[in-house]
Structure formats: C-alpha cells, structure tokens
C-alpha cells in the first residue's frame, strides 16, 4: 500500500487546500469512488464540506483533528 493512502483526507486538505474528489484520489493513489464515499462520511461527521464547485474543504472539526495529530 502506498504511503499516500495512509494520509487522511483532512490532512491533505489542510496541506493542499480545497480539492475535488478525483484530485484527492490522485493524491491518495486510490479509486475516485472510494474517496468520494469517504468524503461523504467526513461531511456527515462535520470534518469536511463540499463547495458549489465540487471541491472539498476542511471544516473546523477536521482542522482541529489535524492539528492535534501533528502536535
């Protein structure tokens, strides 16, 4: 498994900024549908949100989780 897959979507969004599902899939070396499904779960949990352009952005809870993990 690629090291990129071990990174979380909120970590990638914190580092790279807003991104579409396909762009995240490329960064994670994962299938786009897998990433979209995970992003949907993260949206329900309040960790990411999707803007009108289809890009995902980190939401406040995701930002806090990412900050705690990097400390």
Query: How many domain modules?
Result: 1
Please give the number of β-strands. Answer: 2
Beta-strand percentage range: 5-15%
Q: Please give the count of helices.
A: 4
- CATH architecture name: Orthogonal Bundle
Oligomeric composition of the shown chains: single chain
Amino-to-carboxy terminus distance: 25 Å
Helix content: 55-70%
**In terms of structural class, how would the helical and strand content be classed?**
mainly alpha
Q: Mind telling me the CATH superfamily name? A: Winged helix-like DNA-binding domain superfamily/Winged helix DNA-binding domain
- What is the string of SSEs from the N terminus onward? HHHEEH
- Mean model confidence by pLDDT: 83
Largest sheet: 2 strands, antiparallel
What does the model show?
- Helices cover 56% and strands 8% of the residues.
- It has 71 residues and is mainly alpha-helical.
- A hairpin with a 5-residue loop joins strand 1 (48-50) and strand 2.
- The longest helix has 13 residues, at 32-44.
- It is globular and about 25 Å long.
- The model has no long low-confidence stretch (mean pLDDT 83).
Features:
globular; 56% helix; Arc Repressor Mutant, subunit A; two-stranded antiparallel sheet; 4 helices; 71 residues; mainly alpha
Overview in brief:
With 71 residues, this protein is mostly helical. It has helices spanning 9-16, 21-28, 32-44, 60-70; strands spanning 48-50, 56-58.
């Amino acid at each position: 498994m690629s090291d990129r897959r071990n990174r979380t979507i909120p970590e990638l969004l914190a580092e790279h900024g807003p991104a579409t599902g396909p762009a995240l899939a490329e960064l994670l070396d994962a299938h786009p549908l897998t990433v979209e499904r995970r992003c949907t779960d993260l949206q329900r949990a309040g960790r990411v949100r999707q803007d009108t352009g289809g890009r995902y952005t980190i939401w406040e809870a995701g930002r806090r989780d990412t900050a705690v993990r990097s400390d």
